[in-house]
Amino acid sequence: MKLTEKTIESKEIFDGKVIRVIHDKVELEDGNTAMREVVEHPGGVCVAAIDDDDNMLFVRQFRYPYKEVLLELPAGKLEKGQTPLENGKRELLEETGAVGREYMTLGKLYPSPGYCGEIIHMYFCKIDRYEQQQLDEDEFLNVEKLPLSKAVEMVLNNEIADAKTQCAVLKTYMMYDRLKKGNDKI
Question: Does pTM top 0.90 for this prediction?
């Protein structure tokens, strides 16, 4: 099997500030057709930032789709003209006031590949220093520090629901452990 689908027709359903919704008719491998709904998103970035005492920076903020406050890593949508890493550095500074050093990629995450084309780029860094927080005018959040081991425990106990945060915390824990043992270099 080739495991591919060919787009036959494409219709834009919605074009908003952050997302675009497309309704496509596709031809399947066996010649039959099916309908696909796709949410196009510019992509995102998140940063797992750790200080010299092995504390990780988090933000706690209200998330409208769930109508609840979530604990997350600093993150945001990708802006045109900047690399994912540049976006990550910007988001870390804007949301927490932290400036990182020794950035390392944690890879990328497809949060919901069944209908959404968003790709989230994840990074790890050590915190170099703090400057002034630079929140967007519609952004309200609290910054929190948690020991990395506590963050891992919270992920495993389902106390952190955000997918990008779960993934980046666990990847950071695994990579950071190797870095501290000297098996890898940051």
Answer: yes
